[in-house]
Design goal:
- The chain is an alpha+beta fold and about 80 residues long.
- It has one domain (about 5-70).
- About 15% of the residues lie in helices and about 35% in strands.
- The chain is built from 1 helix and 5 strands, in the order αβββββ.
- It has a 3-stranded antiparallel sheet, covered by helices on one side. Strands 4-5 form a two-stranded antiparallel sheet.
- The longest helix is centred in the N-terminal third of the chain and has 11 residues, at about 5-15.
- The chain has one helix at about 5-15, and strands spanning about 20-25, 35-40, 50-55, 60, 65-70.
Length: about 80
């Protein structure tokens, strides 16, 4: 189980070469299965939006870390 700081750093690293590269992430409340963050973009989107919402999945329920679940649950097919 990753710490919140480590998880945020890993997310920032994974999106750093995309149009969604962020300078910071703030954890949002609500939800239970996934981790949700508001990211402050390094460069606004073409629409002018300065932030994005990022949904992150781990192999366990966010609110019940002892409950393992497959990450495929969050993939839209």
């Amino acid at each position: 189980m990753a710490s919140q700081d480590k998880m945020a750093m890993e997310i920032l690293e994974s999106i750093k070469e995309t149009p969604y590269a962020c300078s910071s992430l703030d954890r949002l409340s609500g939800g239970g299965a996934n981790f949700t963050y508001r990211g402050t973009l390094l460069s606004p989107l073409p629409s002018g939006e300065p932030t994005v919402v990022i949904k992150h999945t781990e192999p366990y329920v966010a609110t019940i870390p002892s409950l393992a679940v497959d990450a495929i649950r969050s993939v839209r097919i």
